[in-house]
Amino acid sequence: MTEALLFMLGLGGACGIVLSFASKIFYVYEDPRIALVEENLAAANCGGCGYAGCSAAAEAVVTGKAPPSVCVISSPEGISNVAAVMGMDPGTAEPHQAYNMCEGGTRATDKYHYMGVTSCKAMSVVFGGMRDCHIGCIGLGDCVKSCKFGAVTMGSHGHPVVDDNKCVGCGACQKACPKDIIEVKSMSEKLLKFNQKHDPLAPCAQTCPAEINIPMYINQIKRGDYLGAVQTIRMRNPLLLSCGRVCPHPCESECRRGIEDEPVSINQLKRFVADYEMFSGARIPIKCAPDTGKKVAVVGSGPSGLSCAYFLRRIGHEVSIFESMPKLGGMIRYGIPEYRLPDDVLDWEIEGILNLGIKSYNHVKFGVDFGLGSLMAAGYSAVFLGVGAWKDYELGIPGEDLEGCFTGIDMLSRRAGGEVLDLGKTAAVIGGGNTAVDCARTMLRLGLEKVYMVYRRTRKEMPANEVEIVASEEEGVEFVFLAAPTKVVGNDDGHVTHLEYLQMQLGEPDASGRRRPEPIEGSETLLEVDTIVTAIGQSPEASFKQDPHPRMAELELTRWNTIENDPETLQSTIPYVFTAGDAATGPSLVVDAIGGGRRAARSIDLFLKGEKVEPVVDSLQHRRIKESIFTTVKGITPRKRAKMPELTVDSRLDSFVEVDLVLPEDQALKEANRCLSCCRLCYNPDIKTA
Amino acid sequence: MAQSIAKEFTKGLWAELPPFKLVLGLCPVLAVTQSVENGIGMGLATTFVLICSNFLVSLLRNIIPAKVRIACYIVIIATFVTIVELLMQAYVYELFLKLGIFIPLIVVNCLVLGRSEAFAGKNAPHMAIADGLGMGIGFTLSLGALGAVRESLGAGTILGTPLFGPDFQPFTFMVQAPGAFVCLGLMLCMMNLIGKK
Amino acid sequence: MTDFFVLAISCIFVNNILLAQFLGNCPFLGTSKKMETAVGMSMAVVFVLVMAGIITWMTDTYLLKPLNIEFLRTLSFILVIASLVQFVEMFLKKSIPGLYAGLGIFLPLITTNCAVMGACLINIKEEYTFLQAVVASFTYAIGFGLALVLFAGLRERINIARVPQPLQDTSLGLVTAGIIALSFYAFKGMV
Question: What ipTM does the predicted assembly reach?
Fold first, then answer.
């Protein structure tokens, strides 16, 4: 027994002495934090974490390659100690992170056709862009192999999944991927990415003026990830509740399913997820990049101004909105009637944008209450002019100034502002656009007995959205086609009594192929009405030019009174003034204004950083990738698209209650499943498709 | 007080059940589970070491200097392993022969060292005992269960009693090395399935 | 000479330390996620196992047996191995940083690797001579490395495969290990 004890003591002592000498002799400096972290790991050296021993794991934590929770057997307390040692410095620079840009469809089918090629790179060299894979991810995992930090794994959907906690933004995966599925970017870069000619984009995403990644959000809906879909849309469009209601969805006309079947009801899906978020009662938190300390003034709070302010704020700039009207929203509040876009919905949406930390000043008019000079003096480095197009065109016929004559936007905005208008019992709306239809439908809701729409061509040529025309027909608007107003007739009190118009007939087709309306001599007709509303288009109201600041003289306008700008960068003739929306383009779609606001935000960001304000390289703006636009699609079984639920005609006419309703969840899912996920269909511009 | 002891005890039975939830100490799990008897024997031996070492480590936790604690833990564990080894040699010699070198290898079972480091080194002795007991019983039950599956399929018996009658053709695969891996893998998969719901 | 060859084959394939003897399974699953790690780990095991084999054999033959205190084998072996690993780690870090970068970080993992301890105990149990013990230790380590590298290769492929949720990671890893173990059965007839 004594022998045993002595032996153990001797052995222990010998080992101890050797080691303590060795530790002095072989001393090497290392980051003291490594020892501190290691102390808080379980020190079982079991290898369960995948690192070679606890000191290796500790080193990985200190160098940021592993999270504090690396140890699989550590207690929660140990994990928090490790986190405390690391201090978890948030850092001031915006971190980069890898993102999987592709969420669509099934994985490239030929993954399972083993041909001896086991790397994506080899696969794409051999088969190149000709290979017709459904989504583009080759799925052989070059990115997974390239990641030194184990942050990329192949997810259950066959796409790489990035673990945000492990990703350090080194960019190895991006280099490894031959098909640009993975991108390493900061959030700001992602927010300010614009469609480029070489991007693999579905036709719908190419068409959307706001450049929303449509296939991605539809796929998220398919998977039931509605809030994820909301976030995808918010990367490009902060006004999804509004757009989901009023957008005429140009994307749907390019939908590839539409070639053989009815197109996917893209916009109703957008509205479905937008409403889902609103009714969920909680807002999804929106992240903003660290503050840059630069101030930008946004003049006008319409869709372009809100969009520009939202993107500028998210990339870290300080933004203030200046609005001349009592409430924010611009044309989407005052030009779009409440039965299409309810006020509380718009309030909720705008509140979400202001919550990012955007200040707003109402009742102040540019050129009157403030101007370039005062903004510069207040420390704003750039100005966004999104004043819209609020001035209605006039017909230029006698009697237009009689009492009972209104112009479209004027009437809509006065009504939206709460003014009670005396409109009598019958009315005629002149024009065939969306504003004209809005005026007609609004007046029906204000209790008028008869509303005529007077248009000089036929229904086929009406520029208003088809759904709007159908709804107004259902609600009882009477159409007077092929009619050119010639005179407004009034009574002795100076009040309107009749509208006189000349009947037209369609003549020979002109150069554009449309048959020109020609007046029929002597066909003057009288229409008995109490009110006449002229809604034949608008132009920007140029009162901002009254700003006495000397620089203002440099701001050039076009002959339509829109602000002259570079169509790619949206920079005006004053370098620090940018513009978008109706003020730049003339009356156009809400979604155009939103896209423009984001594009202007990108240019403003470049300007604030002191870089040259240059257009996006190879920008796709309004163009299509030829090779991706098909004329036939194989293998489609037609399935009816979801019908939009709406209020019955009887129940909608006596109030301004919203007419269009949201899709129920089961139908939205069914509709999402009609999407072909063409986001990644490979095409090769060098090879002619037969 | 009693509640927290109970909590430490029960977590080893499901929430952190070794070796399924904490994939540690796999070697004995795979090596000695050809039969229920071996599995439980091994489990009990490990439990004994776990409880004793947890207790002693916990008692000495304020005396042992942080720098050399791992070495101290190993020596403590090794001491108890030696005791178990001698005890088994004396009283259950047959089982001792069957388990072979896996008894001394309890020293390097990460489960034991892991508990010393993660729990016993920071908690009072009674808690450490509860933790060691819970973990040990969980480990024993897992070994027993794995042993039961492998023994019943591989040899057609449970604790030596035949289960399926004389016509049964045993899957010898199950009691051999590859069977051990496959069986544990599938059981882990089942645990994941159950845990998910 | 033939004896040594047979011993080597037996240690590498037939009695593969990982797949047939079930030793060293924790690092087997832990460090086989990436090929690089697996190779580093294998090298470190070869390095340490040979040294540990030599030193434990000497401890046993020249200290424990003459003093008749074999019951302290477990205790003394773990102490010797732990000190050895620690010493080697410090030595490499200072003197051969290049080699340390390659395998140094794997060394601590080996202290509680039952493959090392187990192989040393087997050497004693089988009553190998010194030379046999050295060869056995080396070839056991080679067998460990072989299995680990093979397994890591498979796992890299499995990583990017579509695996049902409950089977992911360790679960499928174990089943794969079972299949590799099965293939090693083919060597059974050789010895």
Answer: 0.82
